[in-house]
Structures are given as C-alpha cells and as structure tokens.
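Q: Fold this one first, please.
A: Sequence and structure below.
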Amino acid sequence: MMGMKQMFAAIALMMSGVLGTWGADEHPFFQTKGYPEWSKMTAEQYRTDLAVALEETEQQLITLNQVKPEEATFENIFVAYARVGENLLQAQANAELLMLMRPTPELKEAQLQGLGLVTRFMGDNAAHFKLNKVIKAA
C-alpha cells in the first residue's frame, strides 16, 4: 500500500506534465518538466523560491481582485484563478519529493518554516479576497 508521502510524490510527478515551467533555471523548485537539477535544490534555495512564489501568488490575487464585474470573462477570472499559486504548489511538491529522495535536517526545517509562511499568507489574503462579486457577475 502506498503511503501519504509516496502518494504526494506520485501526484507531484503526474502534475509535472500538466503545469508549465516558469523560471526553472533561476528557481529550480518551480521545475515541472524533465528531471529536477537536484544539486540546485537546497534548503536555502527552497526558502528563496518559496518567497518568490508567495509574492507572485499575492500579485495574481491582487490582479484578480482588480477586475471589475462588468469586465469579467471566463479567461480573466476562471482561467486566471486556476493558475493562481502554480509555482507555490510546485515548489512545495518538489520540496516534498526532495525530502523523500534526499532528506536533510536543513530541508525539513525549511519546509516547516515554509508551511508556517504559507498558512499565514493564506489567512492574511483570505480576508482581502473579494473575488466572489466578480465571479457572480461573470
């Protein structure tokens, strides 16, 4: 029977063909195509990539919230919403996969810190996210 970690890793690998790659050279934890460059995937790089992904996700949410109900379309709301946080999810999935392949205390600590940052980010942004009005108008 497959454990939760193995299942998560399998899902991450399956998703690698679904999501696009953005900045994989500069941000190896965003990589979705081919084999990750394991040598570039360190705890410090995870922290960097996670910070970039959080900032990117926040900008995506801000952009969505700026759409006026009368300007809402399938593309600028539903498609854009489906792409919110792609790199954030990929960075977390690749970190989990790396922990399965090469577990280190440093990466485990970075993952725990990252989980706290993501949880805080989601809580902070939930209160400011007013997309429901726009979705209803679309």
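Q: Good. Now the second chain.
A: Here it is, same layout.
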Amino acid sequence: MANAEKYQSASEAEVAKFVKQYVVAFNAEDVAKVVDCHHFPHSSLNQDTPLTIVNDRDEMQMEQFYQLIKNNFGWKENQITKLSVLHSSDDKASVYLGMNRVDTDGAPFTKVVGILGLSKVSGKWGFSQVSWHFPPAE
C-alpha cells in the first residue's frame, strides 16, 4: 500500500492488522487460517450470488475456490491497493478492502472490492459479514 498508515485508535490498528493477516493467509492458500478468520454463522453477499448464510467451516469450500481461480485465471496472489477502517469500536468494525487479483505473470486480471463487517467474539476478531465484488482490472 502506497499511503502511510495512520489509525485513529488502537482498535482501528488491531482491525487493520487482522485484515492484512487474512490476506497473507489467503495468498498462502492456508485454508485453515482463512476459514479461522470468519465467525460462524456469517453472511455473504457477493457479486452474482444471492445473500448466503454460511453456517459452518465446510460450507466455505475454499479448496474448490482456489482451484477455480487458479485454473480459470492463473491466479497467483491478491495485492492490497486500499484498506480503510471505516468504523471501529472495541468489538465491531467495518472495513473497505480493495485489492488486485494478479496472475502468475504479475498482471492484474480483476479487482476485488470488499465491504467487511467484523466482530470480536471471545477476544477474537472475525468476519461476521462479507460482501465481495469483482470489477474488471484496469
């Protein structure tokens, strides 16, 4: 990310760190860590799919998702372009996450735009609501 990171509170910094760790786990294809970043149940509202309630870990189907983006697009990693903590408190947060999804040649093939709702349950941050959209890369 190009801009210097400035946070208004300790909770904003904590939330931003959590989201960055999620992206690192996603890029490492660490399914267990990616799934651990979510609370269950959580809601998912994604481009071209109806609102879904994800009740448990098995419903996330991360292995299949990785195969889809690798086989169809040559996915290598997601690169954060913008991370903004829109609101945070001691136990709730809203985040805007912008990324480029890049292929094995390092070329972006789509953007990823996430509006993420987080909550802290039993001392652990996790996604309680996710909304992902995939505009074309520029």
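Q: Anything worth noting on the second one?
A: The first strand starts at residue 38 and ends at 46.
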